[in-house]
Design a protein that fits this description.
The protein has 17 helices and 7 strands. By secondary structure, it is an alpha/beta fold.
Length: 364
């Protein structure tokens, strides 16, 4: 199933908040983002170029492993490196992969479209139709890719082949695409970690801490509920997540993947991070449609997504994709208004970009 996006331990800043590289999860998350290259705009250059350089078969297999077997393949504890995690996976019994996947699915509540769960894990493995219904009851119909999950089912009922597929693919992706890139980005990730560890979070609430580190205002109840329930929060800086934010739960620990950057107001010197932040912000503006969206929203003050779609004569999918990037980069603030999503221009973000460019070029 799709990794929860919509958006994992080294030295800590407090007993509650930790900032860590988490190389195993970080690398796995990069593979997930490769599968979103054609669905999300604003992702980093490495994601776009790597996705384009992969063969069609590699892309399809990567989507199957990172989406169809997400909960079987994801690291749920700290590992010193991605190869160390791969060695661990290769040592496991094949049944562990299936059990990990099905355990995760079984623990999920019934989605709003269904009044109750009618297909249990035993029934789910009896046929591909049962398996698809089992997933729909937990993720809703629109989030279940029947073709992908039907292919996944063929391996779920054959654990040795499921293990072989997952481990061989992850090993190939590391050796072929990720290892060299990981070595390149580690210094930048360490800078982000060090900068955020200098911040005093003791006077911040959990919600305030998450908003400060991710640079986003939280709007969704499922986010705030997970944060309040978490006994510990681990923040993982990523060079590949673009303007988006990811999350995962491991027991009582909430992991949050955020864009590697410098915290607001920091004096920490890291030109690579500053440049990467500017590129993310400029990328959102490097499109005529997104600029037109910002212009029309600025003129109206606040608009619903449907109004924006109608005003600019855009398709629903295009409108959603552009609004997602503009919201993720902070140019638009998003809120719920009478069942719809409403958007307003964030003037502070525009000023932040101008200031960041000025500081980078003039204060270097």
């Amino acid at each position: 199933m799709p990794a929860p996006l919509t958006d994992i331990i080294a030295s800590s800043t407090t007993s509650l908040v930790q900032v860590a590289l988490e190389p195993a999860f970080n690398a796995f998350n990069s593979l997930v983002m490769l599968g979103r290259a054609g669905k999300l705009s604003g992702l980093g250059e490495w994601i776009i170029k790597t996705s384009a350089s992969m063969t069609r078969e590699e892309r399809q297999r990567n989507e199957l492993v990172t989406f169809g077997y997400y909960y079987a393949a994801i690291p749920l504890q700290s590992w010193p490196s991605f190869p160390a995690y791969l060695d661990h996976l290769e040592s496991l019994s094949p049944d562990v992969f299936r059990d990990k996947l099905m355990d995760a699915y079984s623990d999920m509540p019934c989605c709003e479209e269904y009044s109750e769960l009618t297909v249990d894990r035993v029934m789910a493995l009896e046929s591909v139709d049962n398996y698809l219904e089992f997933l729909r009851q937990r993720f809703s119909t629109e989030h279940v890719d029947d073709k992908l999950e039907s292919e996944a089912y063929a391996y779920v009922i054959d654990p040795p082949e499921m293990k072989r597929l997952i481990t061989s693919h992850l090993r190939m992706m590391w050796d072929t695409y990720l290892e060299e890139e990981w070595q390149r980005i580690v210094p930048m990730l360490l800078d982000a970690k060090a900068a955020f560890e200098q911040v005093n979070y003791r006077e911040m609430s959990k919600i305030e801490t998450v908003e400060f580190i991710t640079g986003k205002e939280l709007q969704h109840d499922h986010w705030t509920s997970m944060i309040e329930k978490a006994e510990q929060i681990v923040f993982v800086p990523s060079a590949h997540v673009g303007p988006y934010t990811g999350k995962f739960m491991s027991g009582d620990t909430l992991g949050i993947v955020f864009r590697a950057r410098l915290p607001e107001g920091t004096q920490y010197y890291a030109p690579d991070l500053s440049r990467a932040e500017i590129l993310v912000l400029l990328n959102a503006l490097a499109d005529d449609t997104r600029l037109r969206i910002l212009q029309v929203v600025a003129g109206e003050g606040e608009m619903r997504s449907q109004e924006i779609m109608n005003e600019l004569e855009l398709s629903q999918s295009a409108t959603s994709r552009h609004l997602k990037q503009l919201s993720a980069t902070g140019y638009l603030t998003e809120r719920r208004c009478e069942g719809a999503k409403c958007y307003e221009l964030n003037n502070d973000r525009v000023e932040d970009l101008v200031g960041a460019i000025s500081s980078f070029l003039l204060d270097a």
